[in-house]
Amino acid sequence: MDDNTFAAIMRSEGGVSRGGTLAARSIISDAMSFLGVPYVFGGNSPEYGFDCSAFVQYVFAMNGISLPRTADYQFEEGTDVAMEDLRPGDLVFFETYAPGASHVGIYHLWREDSRLLAKRRREMNRQAL
What we know:
Oligomer: single chain
Number of strands: 5
Number of domains: 1
């Protein structure tokens, strides 16, 4: 990610739906600092790699927000938000290999589009191979 893109994300006027703009900027900035850390199913550290829910738990803990370890339990903690009302720092959940919430990502703005940090992390990991 180039410096201009990162700066644009940090200047965005959107705030975390359930929090403030400073919290969103801090969460996104901290999350971006782990670009290049590998995805490891069951992983829970920056040294060895994260899975999606451990990554979210770790980044939010850096910002004083305690979340459960797994995506399904993180899903139970939140408040439903319509897709059109998502704001940077909100969590988004997906049903993948198991019924219910089995994948989670941090929503943020990416070059005028909405993207997921988790997707960008996967792209970075593929490029590193």
